[in-house]
Amino acid sequence: MAAVRRTLDGRWHTLRDEIRSREDFAELRVDPATGVEAYRAAVWDMLGRLAADGHAVHGFPTAVGGRGDIGGSVVSFEMLAFADLSLQVKSGVQWGLFGGAIQALGNPEQHARWLPAVMDLTLPGCFAMTETGHGSDVQSVHTTATYDPDTREFVVDTPTESARKDYIGNAARDGRMAAVFVQLYSKGERHGVHAVLVPLRDDDGNVLPGVEITDDGHKEGLNGVDNGRLAFHGVRVPRENLLDRHGSVAEDGTYSSSIESENRRFFTMLGALVRGRVSVSGSAVGAASLAQTIAVRYGEARRQFAAPGGDEEITVLDYLAHQRKLLPGLARTYALRFAQNELVEMLHDIQTTREAGGDVDEKRQRELESRAAGTKALTTWHATATIQACREACGGQGYLSENRLGQLRADTDVFTTFEGDNTVLLQLVAKGLISGYADDFGNLDTLGTVRFVADQVLDTVAERTSLRQLAERLRAVGPGGEDDVRERSWQVKLLDDREEHTLDGLVRRLRPARDKGISAERQFAIFNSAQDHLLRAARAHLDGLVLDAFVRGIDTCVDPSARALLEKVCDLYALSLIEEDKGWFLEHGRISAARSKAITAEVNRLCLELRPHARALVDAFGIPEEWIGAPIATGAEQRRQDEARAHAASLV
Amino acid sequence: MAAVRRTLDGRWHTLRDEIRSREDFAELRVDPATGVEAYRAAVWDMLGRLAADGHAVHGFPTAVGGRGDIGGSVVSFEMLAFADLSLQVKSGVQWGLFGGAIQALGNPEQHARWLPAVMDLTLPGCFAMTETGHGSDVQSVHTTATYDPDTREFVVDTPTESARKDYIGNAARDGRMAAVFVQLYSKGERHGVHAVLVPLRDDDGNVLPGVEITDDGHKEGLNGVDNGRLAFHGVRVPRENLLDRHGSVAEDGTYSSSIESENRRFFTMLGALVRGRVSVSGSAVGAASLAQTIAVRYGEARRQFAAPGGDEEITVLDYLAHQRKLLPGLARTYALRFAQNELVEMLHDIQTTREAGGDVDEKRQRELESRAAGTKALTTWHATATIQACREACGGQGYLSENRLGQLRADTDVFTTFEGDNTVLLQLVAKGLISGYADDFGNLDTLGTVRFVADQVLDTVAERTSLRQLAERLRAVGPGGEDDVRERSWQVKLLDDREEHTLDGLVRRLRPARDKGISAERQFAIFNSAQDHLLRAARAHLDGLVLDAFVRGIDTCVDPSARALLEKVCDLYALSLIEEDKGWFLEHGRISAARSKAITAEVNRLCLELRPHARALVDAFGIPEEWIGAPIATGAEQRRQDEARAHAASLV
Question: Domain Acyl-CoA oxidase/dehydrogenase middle: where (chains A, B) (predicted)?
Answer without folding.
Answer: 126-234
